[in-house]
Amino acid sequence: MKYQNILVEKDAAIATITINRPTKLNALNRVTIKELNQAFSKLEKDKNILAIILTGSSEKAFVAGADISEFADFSVKEGKKLAAKGQEILFDFVENLSTPVIAAINGFALGGGLELAMACHFRVASDNAKMGLPEVSLGVIPGYGGTQRLPQLVGKGRAMEMIMTANMIDAQRALDYGLVNHVVSQNGLLEFCQKLAGKISNNSSVAIGYAIKAINGCFNNSVNGFSTEINAFGKCFGTADFKEGTTAFMEKRKAHFPGK
Length: 260
What we know:
Layout: E1 6-11, E2 14-19, H1 30-45, E3 51-56, E4 61-63, H2 76-95, E5 101-105, E6 108-110, H3 112-119, E7 122-126, E8 130-132, H4 146-154, H5 156-165, E9 169-170, H6 171-177, E10 182-184, H7 189-201, H8 205-217, H9 225-236, H10 240-250
Parallel strand pairs: 2-3, 3-5, 4-6, 5-7, 6-8, 7-10
Antiparallel strand pairs: 1-2, 8-9
Helix pairs in contact: 1-2, 2-3, 3-4, 4-5, 8-9
């Protein structure tokens, strides 16, 4: 499938999605959000893809925010619809994918860009990356899950400060806060993420999907995370991956998971 604003590459079991609007610092607009939904949906259905890396084109930006020109004149009703639709088709959608998604933050991740990175299962930043939620400086608040996911990752006090000051933080502070898992050089970012994705792809994709669901249950007030874990744990016993994994362990050999 040909896209206008994103690039999709596959290398064995790993797919890389690159948001490709360099002249707009990869800002999210309606077309880009729709294309990302389509790409993630297609890769989720591809059983040969076991991990996805999401990054931005050029060395300046992962995603430098939303395309403000698209909603500057919106009404209250239109604003609510914009946030609800975006969360449904992209941000919540990515968070709940059973295929793990690694955000490779290669520069500015601001506003909707940081919200998109936080929706990924974990994050790796280049040493030149800058992150922040500057929405209050425009008279609005984060609308794509930023007020919910940032406190989960960095704590309530730090999230309050970041959102209320609209300040950016650098990669090292993001690492100290727990917002990102690793900080690496700009040149080594994708290679590092590919190695992580490779390690993930060696394990049971079925078990990883259940693990994502159970971990997300911890942060959903309408779900009992412990019950989700118990049910997911039990379901693993009925999978071909469990049979292969335990058999390989007892036979002292490397497991070859069928993904079923």
